[in-house]
Give the backbone structure.
Amino acid sequence: MSVVDSVLERVPQAYRALALRHRELIKFGVVGAITFFIDTGIFYALKLTILSPKPVTSKVIAVLVATLVSYVLNREWSFRTRGGHRTHHEATLYFIISGIGVGLYSAPLWVSRYVLHLQTPFTSRLVEEVADFTAGQIVGLLLGMAFRWWAFRKWVFPTDHEDDESTREGALAR
């Protein structure tokens, strides 16, 4: 029994069916939470040290590292009952889609900094930090995550038999 299954057993009966139906989304969300902390840690480590004048570059590097971790976790856990592509084809699609995701994650920060000029000397350091966090870690994350969830299910980890009981039973056994 997986960790998610054991947690779902403790969910009140009224919500259990809903949680089981969206188990894949819950796993994707857990992976997203893990990689959020990786992304945030690397972003601020770079932004506040060696790449302080280049916050967008810091963000891109952070997202790339988090994406590598995300691929492994999503492939081996979130979407392990899906697929059908050879590993190299799957990985290629994953990283192409994630590359688009990097742009979506970074675009709000770029707009905040270079279009809205929410940076020093145009604003205070506090406003700059709040704007960077909001644009880069919240808005960018939501845009990128929504796109990646949709694209991964559609192209990277597709399945033609979502409602096939034997597929579900096999997934529950894993």
Remarks:
- The chain has a mean pLDDT of 82.
